[in-house]
# Entry
Amino acid sequence: MTVTPENESSAALPAPVVRVTPAADVALVATFGALLAVCSLTSITIGLVPVPITLQTFGVLLAGAVLGARRGALATLLYLAVGLAGVPVFAQGAAGLGVLATPSVGYLLAFPLVAWVVGLAVERIRHPRRWLLSTLAATLAATVVLYLIGVPVMAWRAGVPVSTALAWNLSFIPLDLVKAVLAAVVGAAVHRAFPDLLRRR
Amino acid sequence: MRGDRRGSAASGHAWSRSAGAARSSGFAGHVGAAGTAGTTVVHRASVPTKLASLAVLGVATVVLHGLVPAVTLLLVTVGLALLARLPRRAAFAGLRPVVAVVVVLGAVQWWQRGWMTAVEAAADLTTLVLGATVVLATSPIDDLLDTVVRASAPLRRVGLQPELVALTVMLMLRTVPALLDLTAEVRDAARARGLGRHPRALLVPMAIRTVARARATGEALAARGIGDEPRPRSAEPAL
# Structure
């Protein structure tokens, strides 16, 4: 390698070390915890779908896709802790420990694992060109993980057979697919805008 | 959205309306905290005690089967609510989100397993939600969040400092109203372009501006030296 003036000057100046400060991580985790709250409280209308859909699952998938496994899971944990402590951040402004008694608690408690799964996959993407498809695969797989925990817990808490809970769950699948696609698309866009967001493995 | 402050928890606007929503005291109204000043025995009990009792209640509803235990636990919880002088409005505000669940669940159980199971399931659910409402209504939200922070002390072992957890919680609460404003802004912009029903036009700008905001916040924190305290096993930047 030849020594170019550019290299010389960069040797003379301190290298621009991108320090991964805890402060940056704290801010990202806190902001995505807040984003989860906002996603749970707001709903959007899409195309021809008549009912407004809430974005809670989208937010969880996005947290994993944008922040990676560890910070994504921490953001969802923070959201759950704040919500269980009584701040109205769950869907429809629900809050508090009473949420633990509802049949849908399994979905809620699965969130950190779901974000972690997406993050784990996203951190392993090497080719920026494969971003969208790889992230989509990750969000779809994570949705399956969500069901694997959510459905049995719903069956247990509601006192119905797993098959019945599975049938109830069927009605969520179309919108969850939409949310998985949206999370992948938006996650890819965020990484195009901020290429240094993830620490690649 | 309901007009009154106490019951407005069901709407996200509760956040943006109250000017100081970010301050944790702004949330006190939502949990119907009419009597957070320690007036009754239930109010004076420490938050960890109350949370532990609630956990015991939860385990009891799961472990004890049958109609009699379920109804007994419900009566005990109602007694506690009366003892705490829980305002009727706060009790209903807490129960409202699960009324539909209780009704549907009761109907399904009645149909599939008979009325006894239905009553048991409905009573268990009502017990837990009412119990949680009592705990929340008799504990200042600051104490509850303090408990969260203290409960996170064992996380020190995996490298999370409780102070940092407290900071993160507060930062999150401050960020929610700002992000709600951001959402409204982005939504208006999308509508103005005739893209009101295009999720990408809404979600992509929202996500990018959220991350940009987080970046700026991180830099502001770092500039104030927050979160930069020497850590026992801090990874030195490789040179």
Q: What stands out?
A: Chain A touches chain B through 62 residues (CB under 8 Å). The two ends of chain A are 27 Å apart (CA to CA). Residues 18-193 of chain A form a domain with the Arp2/3 complex 21 kDa subunit ARPC3 fold (CATH 1.10.1760.20).
